[in-house]
Write a structure and sequence with these properties.
By secondary structure, this protein is of the alpha/beta class. It is built from eight helices and ten strands. Helix 4 links the parallel strand 6 and strand 7. The chain starts with a strand and ends with a helix.
Length: 234
């Protein structure tokens, strides 16, 4: 089985019990904790910031080991807040190319602060934007919904885009030996995760499908295991 990663998005968690939710989903086997930051400017919603990231960091633990904090900044302008999230405990920081005047410089800033760097592509953003910054990237995040709100349906055309970006990643790996994670966010659930994996994704952000899981169906651990079982057939 390939090295797939399940990344529950806490945008769909119970914010009144956020630390407990992060602890539960981490203990249930989450590979990443996906942390969505929205500024009511770049996207039409307002969520959480560095203080909350720092507050949940101690809860993101599995078997005594820290779980990766995967911070997705839907913020413009973005450079000023990157050092704050690095200080708050982010492991991966992903930005949108539209949110910065100089993408290469922003990615270098993320790495200079000790974090892995990612670029997020909206449904209408061409993959060509990554062609000249591949050497700066550790992760490419493809949005399979328009960013701003959880609970949306997966945009089917994203499957073509996943395959296109996977080809770019594989070609870059063949030339340089460098690995880049391909992550997909939006409408990911047990029923479609295998199809998304077959298209070329290796990291899967899922919010309502995980945090909406019922205890009688195995809770968070049960739904993530069903996703892993589906991916085992890819």
């Amino acid at each position: 089985m390939k090295d797939y990663r399940i990344a529950p998005s806490i945008l769909s968690a119970d914010f009144a019990r956020l630390g407990e939710e992060v602890a539960r989903v981490s203990a249930a086997g989450a590979d990443f904790i996906h942390f969505d930051v929205m500024d009511n400017h770049y996207v039409p919603n307002l969520t959480i910031g560095p203080m909350v990231c720092a507050a949940i960091k101690p809860y993101a633990v599995h078997d005594g080991k820290p779980v990766t904090l995967d911070v997705h900044l839907m913020v413009s302008p973005v450079d000023q807040i990157i050092p704050e999230f690095a200080k708050a405990g982010a492991n991966i920081i992903t930005v949108h190319p539209e949110a910065t005047l100089h993408l290469d410089r922003t990615l270098a800033l993320i790495r200079d602060h000790g974090c892995r760097a990612g670029v997020a592509l909206n449904p209408g953003t061409s993959p060509a934007v990554i062609d000249y910054v591949m050497d700066r990237l550790d992760l490419i995040l493809l949005m399979s919904v328009n960013p701003g709100f959880g609970g949306q349906s997966f945009i089917a055309e994203t499957l073509v885009k996943i395959a296109e970006v996977r080809k770019r990643i594989d070609e870059h790996h063949a030339k340089t030996g460098k690995s880049i994670l391909l992550e997909v966010d939006g409408g990911v659930k047990t029923e479609n995760v295998a199809e998304i994996g077959r298209a070329g994704a290796c990291s899967f952000v899922s919010g309502s499908a995980i945090f909406g899981a019922r205890d009688e169906d195995g809770g968070y651990r049960g739904v993530m295991q069903r996703m892993r079982d589906a991916l085992a057939s890819v």
